[in-house]
Amino acid sequence: MEDTLNNNARQPVLRLRAEPRATNAHGRVQAGWLLHQIDLAGATFAERKAKGQVTTVAVNAFQFAHPILVGDVVSIYADCLRLGQKSVTVKITVEAERMCGELLAITELISTYVAIDAEGRSRLI
User: Fold this and answer.
1) What is the per-residue pLDDT across 57-83, written as a single tens digit (0 to 9) for each?
2) Does residue 54 contact residue 123 with C-beta atoms inside 8 Å?
3) How far apart are alpha carbons 77 and 11 in whole angstroms?
4) What global pTM score does this model have?
5) Which of its termini does the chain have fewer beta carbons within 10 Å around, N or C?
């Protein structure tokens, strides 16, 4: 197994099992389901860094290296790339563990979140 897939030293922001309701008619997990999970994990991470509410303002393109299958355990990791005055830029990495134990790198992307106040206006972090 490659070192890039060995994340024993860090914990995922989100870990969940891919279920049948997340799949298309061919049994593959839909990209929209994964993007939703990525945004939840990224926003949770960014909220911790911003010490309050954030909103997603950008997600770069991402590609699937492998499909996610029903039963896979999906782990989503986040690392802070930049903490600005009002925004947090996060590198998000997704891995899937097959039921046989095989660990696969699924995708990687950069997402930016802006800290907002109760009225939805940007605020200082």
Assistant:
1) 999 988 999 999 999 999 999 999 999
2) no
3) 7
4) 0.88
5) N
CB atoms within 10 A of CB 97: 17
* Residues 6+ away with beta carbon under 8 Å from 9: none
Tokens coding 56: 């997603």
- As a whole number of angstroms, the distance between CA 97 and CA 17 comes to 9
Enter the DSSP assignment of 72.
Answer: P
Q: Which run of H or of E encompasses 117?
A: none
3-state secondary structure of 120: coil
CA distance 81 to 117: 23
The Cα–Cα gap between 97 and 106 comes to 10
Retrieve residue 105's tokens.
């790198």
